[in-house]
Specification:
Layout lengths: L4 E4 L4 E4 L7 E6 L10 H19 L3 E6 L6 H9 L4 H18 L15 H13 L3 E3 L5 E3 L19 E6 L10 E8 L16 E3 L1 H13 L3 E7 L3 H16 L4 E7 L2 E3 L2 E2 L10 H6 L4 H9 L7 E2 L2 H25 L9 H15 L4 H20 L5 H18 L11 H15 L3 H13 L2 E6 L2 E6 L1
Parallel strand pairs: 3-4, 3-10, 7-8, 10-11, 12-14
Antiparallel strand pairs: 1-2, 5-6, 6-8, 8-9, 12-13, 15-16
Bound molecules: adenosine monophosphate (AMP) and zinc ion.
The site of adenosine monophosphate has 17 residues, from helix 1 and strand 10.
Length: about 475
């Protein structure tokens, strides 16, 4: 289990991945702020993290991944009030939508999805520790701030020039830019804009700042020090810089060994974002007739550190690429004919080695996909020449399955049975139980006329799209 190199934002260099605990990779991935349906820019980050997770598993590591849900912050409060809804009801609908979208993109679930509002006591305890150690101070309005002057390492992730810092100047909002680096809010005293969103604390009624949420939740589920922390590049400053300051000042240990950040999904040269209004949700794209699998391929196929420009033409190209995969697997199945797998033929072995070397090098997905498509080309040529034995074909099938454990796009997901077909299947089951074969056959024909095939198996009827 060696040989995996990752680009660490802390050092701006490629480093060998070595977990703190042998055989176990622990990672924290900043999750969605549930004030709206996530856009596919957000999902670029989650698809990148999914590839990372799956690659670690392929390498034999047990993975513990934590992804938080930010369900209280400036934006969730603002928009729940605009909608006239209690915060918890407002965010619940977007949590649900988020998990639906994650499934549509075949993203493996994390081990933990802690929500910020379930961890207020942990946040208060962390702020207390920072106060006791002299890193935090209370402002006149009852808010508590982190003092960047007390923390000489401030700026190490974002590589800030410390002479530009403005200690003693305070920034109350969750988001701000590098030019305005200043003492940031750990606890925000209640004001009327918060409505009924407030918790009791040693500093009076109020709510946590966004950054402290992740520090408290990562500590609870992964301990004070873990292996990998990820997010989009926009998270580097201030969010991750502030997480480092809070966690490391409190615990005296490095928060994470490796910091990995994905570049943005762009639209016409600009970051896809809600505030710019240039975004597409997954739902919009599915409604246009694209499959979750095609969107996943599109988000996956560009190296995570390279900006990716979103266009519908590139989604069409993803569709074409997947069609080639499907044609190949459809050809391979009868060639294997259920034979036991033999050793991989030489051309497939070479592709397998290239695939692994590529992903070991900071998840070089373009080279890994090139190995896949070269294997498809060679496999087709060998089949054209009738030189692929059933044992060879079965070995190649097994290789594709192994690869799909990492890519999550090669296998075509079974299409859900629509209600009109299901109704006929139910009727047919009753007919068969009553040994009414005539009706059973008539229903099979009706189902076939609607583009579905039904097979009778020992486990019952199985319907597949023809
Ligand atoms: P948010 O819900 O804004 O906190 O963002 C959730 C995650 O999506 C973070 O890791 C962001 O860095 C990431 N993200 C937001 N916009 C984009 C984008 N256009 N491209 C890639 N990642 C993004
Ligand atoms: Zn975070």
């Amino acid at each position: 289990m060696s040989g995996f190199r990752v680009h660490n934002t802390l050092s701006r260099q490629l480093e060998d991945f070595q977990p703190r605990e042998a055989g176990h990779a622990r990672m924290y991935t900043c999750g969605p702020t549930v004030y709206n349906v996530a856009h596919i820019g957000n999902f670029r980050a989650y698809v990148f993290e999914d590839l990372l997770r799956r690659w670690l598993q392929f390498k034999g590591y047990r993975v513990t991944q934590v992804m938080n849900l930010t369900d209280v912050d400036d934006k969730t409060i603002r928009d729940s009030q605009a909608a006239g809804m209690p915060l918890a009801d407002y965010t619940a609908q977007y949590k649900q939508a988020f998990f639906e979208d994650m499934r549509a993109l075949n993203i493996q679930p994390a081990e933990h999805y802690p929500a910020a509002t379930d961890h207020i006591p942990e946040m208060i305890a962390l702020i207390r520790t920072l106060e006791e150690k002299g890193y935090a101070y209370r402002a006149a309005d009852g808010s508590v701030y982190f003092s960047i002057d007390q923390w000489p390492a401030y700026g190490k992730l974002a590589h800030l020039d410390r002479t530009g810092l403005r200690p003693g100047v305070r920034v109350a909002t969750d988001e701000y830019d590098k030019e305005n680096a200043a003492d940031f809010a750990l606890w925000k005293a209640w004001d009327e804009r918060d409505g009924d969103v407030a918790w009791n604390s040693p500093w009076g009624r109020g709510r946590p700042g966004w950054h402290v949420e992740c520090s408290a939740m990562s500590m609870k589920y992964l301990g004070p020090s873990f292996d990998i922390h990820t997010g989009g590049v926009d998270n580097i400053f201030p969010h991750h810089e502030d997480e480092i300051a809070q966690s490391e000042a409190a615990n005296g240990q490095p928060l994470a060994t490796y910091w990995l950040h994905c570049a943005h999904l762009m639209v016409d040269g600009q970051k896809m974002s809600k505030s710019r209004g240039n975004f597409h949700t997954l739902r919009d794209i599915l409604a246009r007739g694209y499959a979750g699998r095609e969107v996943r391929y599109e988000l996956l196929a560009t190296h995570y550190r390279a900006p990716l420009n979103f266009t519908f033409a590139s989604l069409d190209a993803a569709r074409t690429a997947l069609r080639r995969v499907d044609e190949f697997t459809a050809r391979l199945a009868p060639a294997a004919g259920g034979a036991p797998a033999g050793a991989l033929p030489g051309w497939a072995r070479a592709a397998a080695d290239r695939f692994e070397t590529a992903l070991d090098e900071d998840l070089n997905i373009s080279a890994a996909l090139a190995a896949l498509f070269d294997a498809i080309r060679e496999g087709n040529a060998v089949m054209d020449a009738k030189l692929l034995t059933p044992a060879d074909a079965a070995a190649v099938q097994a290789l594709l399955k192994r690869w799909d454990g990492v890519l999550g796009v090669l296998e075509k997901p079974a299409e859900a049975v629509p209600p009109d077909i299901q109704a006929r299947l139910d009727k047919r089951q009753t007919a068969r139980a009553a040994k009414d074969w005539k009706l059973s056959d008539a229903l099979r024909d009706e189902i076939a006329a609607r583009g579905w095939t039904v097979k009778d198996t020992p486990k019952g009827q199985v319907a597949t799209k023809a």
